[in-house]
UniProtKB/TrEMBL annotation:
Domain Intradiol ring-cleavage dioxygenases: 128-264
Composition bias type Gly residues, residue spans: 349-385
Entry protein name: Intradiol ring-cleavage dioxygenases domain-containing protein
Sorted UniProt keywords: Signal
GO function term, MF aspect, one: ferric iron binding
Length: 395
C-alpha cells in the first residue's frame, strides 16, 4: 500500500520582533510582553470563531477535494515514470519486481486534506533570514537544485472575516540542502567571498493565491544550517502590481512567518542524497528557538504531508492552512533586491532573521559548507567553496 504519513496541524506562528540571527548578533525575545500576548490571544479567538463558521466548512470541503485531486495527479506522474522505467527494464529481458502501487483512495478526503486554518502569521514575526525583495513570480522554484521534490500547498484565511484571501502574493524562500540561501552574499551564508551568489535565485519565488486563498509551490525539501531547525519562510504582499520583468512591485507587507516539518520526516530526508553530505549541525525542532516559543503558546506550525509514491524519493506533498490579519501593513527590510540587472545588496541591511548565533555555511572549523560556487548565469550553485580545495556536490 502507498505509505501515508500525517502530521496534525494546530499551529500558530509566534509573535517576534525582526532580529538578526547570524554571527555576532543576539536573538531577542518578547514572549513575556503583554502586548504580544494580547495579540496572540486575539488571533486565537478569531481563529476559533472561523473554524466552525458555515463559510469555513464549505471552504474546507473545496480545499479537501482540490488537494486530493492534486495528489492524484502527482501520483499519476510518478506511476507513469515508473512504467517507463519498467518498459526499459523489460527491453533488456529483465523482469520488473515493482510492487505496492495502488490507487489513492480515502473514504473521507476532509479527514486528510480538510484542515482548518490553525496557523496564524503575525504582523511582527521574525522576517529573515535573507529576505530578497522583488523575486520572480513563479510556482516552481527548483531550478537545477538536486534534492527531494516538495509540493507545498498553502491556504490563506483572513482571521477577521473567515474568508479566503485571494490575490495575496506570497513570498516563499528557504535554504538549499547544505544550508545556503540564494541571492545574498553575507558572512554566515556560505562563502562570503563568492560574489556570484548575489545573482542566484534558486528556491525563491512568489505567487498569488487563488479565489480559495490557495497557492502552491514546487520546490526541494529544505536543508538546515547551524542553530536552526529545517524551516520555510513565507511573507504576504498586497497592493502591488506585476512589472514587465515578472516581479511584484509597489506592494506592502501584511504578515510574515515560518513553517516547519515533522522531525521524523527531516531525519528521513537528511539521510538521503546531497542532504547526507552536509557538514552543518542539525538542530532538532525541540531545540529551535523560534519553534520552541511557538510551541510555548500551545500550537504547532508543522505542515501535514504524505509521500507522493511508495518512497520518499518520489516526492512529498505537504499542506497547511494559515490565518492572517489582512488589514495589517508593515515595512520589512530586505537583505537584497532583485532588479532588471540582477541582485543588489540592500542598503537597509535587513539580512537578519531568527536563530541566534550562527548561520548557514561559512568558513569555519566545523567544516560547514562554504556556499554556492557556481559561475553560470542561472544562479544555480556549482558547489560549496568553504575551506576545501575540492568541490563536492551540493544543491
Amino acid at each position: 500500500m502507498v505509505h501515508l504519513k500525517l502530521t496534525l496541524v494546530t499551529a500558530i506562528l509566534a509573535f517576534f520582533p525582526s532580529v538578526d540571527a547570524h554571527p555576532n548578533h543576539q536573538q531577542q525575545h518578547l514572549v513575556n510582553d503583554q502586548d504580544t500576548q494580547a495579540i496572540k490571544q486575539q488571533a486565537l479567538r478569531s481563529l476559533k470563531a472561523c473554524e466552525h463558521s458555515t463559510q469555513a466548512r464549505r471552504l474546507q470541503q473545496r480545499t479537501a477535494e482540490r488537494r486530493e485531486l492534486q495528489l492524484r495527479q502527482l501520483r499519476e506522474v510518478v506511476l507513469n515514470r515508473r512504467r517507463l522505467s519498467a518498459d526499459e527494464v523489460a527491453a533488456k529481458s529483465h523482469k520488473s519486481n515493482l510492487t505496492g502501487i495502488t490507487s489513492f483512495d480515502t473514504a473521507d478526503n476532509t479527514l486528510l486534506f480538510g484542515t482548518s486554518p490553525k496557523c496564524v502569521l503575525e504582523p511582527e514575526v521574525t522576517q529573515g533570514p535573507y529576505y530578497v525583495k522583488g523575486e520572480l513570480i513563479r510556482n516552481d522554484v527548483r531550478e537545477s537544485q538536486p534534492g527531494i521534490d516538495l509540493f507545498a500547498d498553502i491556504q490563506v484565511i483572513d482571521i477577521n472575516t473567515c474568508e479566503p484571501v485571494s490575490a495575496l502574493y506570497l513570498d516563499f524562500w528557504h535554504c538549499n540542502s547544505t544550508g545556503v540561501y540564494a541571492g545574498v552574499v553575507a558572512n554566515g551564508n556560505g562563502d562570503s567571498s563568492d560574489l556570484t551568489n548575489i545573482n542566484a535565485t534558486f528556491l525563491r519565488g512568489l505567487a498569488p493565491t487563488d479565489e480559495d486563498g490557495i497557492v502552491h509551490f514546487t520546490t526541494k525539501f529544505p536543508g538546515y544550517y547551524t542553530s536552526r531547525a529545517t524551516h520555510i519562510h513565507v511573507l504576504g504582499n498586497h497592493g502591488g502590481q506585476v512589472a514587465a520583468n515578472n516581479t511584484y512591485i509597489g506592494s506592502t507587507v501584511s504578515n510574515v512567518g515560518q513553517l516547519f516539518f515533522d522531525q521524523d520526516l527531516i531525519t528521513q530526508v537528511s539521510a538521503t542524497g546531497t542532504y547526507a553530505t552536509s557538514k552543518q549541525q542539525l538542530t532538532l525542532n525541540a531545540n529551535d528557538g523560534i519553534f520552541r516559543e511557538e510551541a510555548a503558546t500551545g500550537f504547532d506550525p508543522v505542515m501535514e504531508y504524505v509521500f507522493v509514491g511508495d518512497s520518499i524519493d518520489d516526492g512529498i506533498f505537504a499542506w497547511i492552512s494559515i490565518g492572517i490579519n489582512a488589514s495589517v501593513s508593515k515595512t520589512v527590510n530586505p537583505a537584497a533586491l532583485w532588479t532588471a540587472n540582477g541582485g543588489v545588496a540592500s542598503s537597509s541591511g535587513g539580512a537578519g532573521g531568527p536563530g541566534g548565533a550562527g548561520g548557514p555555511g561559512g568558513n569555519n572549523s566545523t567544516g560547514a559548507p562554504g556556499g554556492p560556487g557556481g559561475n553560470n548565469n542561472t544562479g544555480a550553485p556549482g558547489g560549496p567553496s568553504g575551506n576545501n580545495s575540492t568541490l563536492r556536490p551540493q544543491c
